[in-house]
Amino acid sequence: MDDQAFAELGAELLRLHRHGAYDRALALATREGDYYPAWGGRDAFWRACLATRLGNVALAVAVLDEALARGSWFPQRLLLEDEDLRPLQGLPAFLRIMERSRERQAAMEAEAKPDPLVREPTPAANWVTSLHLVFHGSNQNARGGVAARAGPRSAPRSSRVRTALSGRAR
């Protein structure tokens, strides 16, 4: 799993979404999303949103169901408030998805244990050390969230995402 590549994939999907290129975004998310299993159902959520934008409600429901079957879950607020998913609201299949997600989220929160990430500074001569506390939300964690990306971004764009994005809309 390459967090930088996944972030780039997400940025490209958002760009395509903003330009109304839902079909191209869905194809990209479908082709590339499975390479990032550690990100749980985020790729499935994107695919469901894009399928709904394209009018394919059945595909959107199937993608969310598939992600739930693999152990993912989706925050209730996200399912209820995302504009892309409005056409699904009220459908019995979507209500089942919401209920299963709620149950899975509650179970995971009950089992969750803090796993603080502490990075010790490497002091240099005459170097002043500062303390940085990073709080994160939106279902992120220190290993895949803001703390993991702190510092200079010198990592080159992954060749997988570069190849996948080479045909993007302008």
Strand content: under 5%
Tally of DSSP β-strands = 0
Biggest β-sheet description? none
End-to-end separation in angstroms reads 28 Å
Helix tally equals: 8
What is the element string, with H for helices and E for strands?
A: HHHHHHHH
Q: Summarize model confidence as the mean pLDDT.
A: 78
Helix content: 40-55%
Tell me the number of structural domains.
1
- Please mark out the parts with pLDDT under 50 across 5 or more consecutive residues, or reply none: 146-170
- The backbone outline, from C-alpha atoms, is globular
Q: How does the helix and strand content classify structurally?
A: mainly alpha
Rg over CA atoms, rounded to whole Å, is 19 Å
Task: Write a brief structural summary.
The protein has one domain.
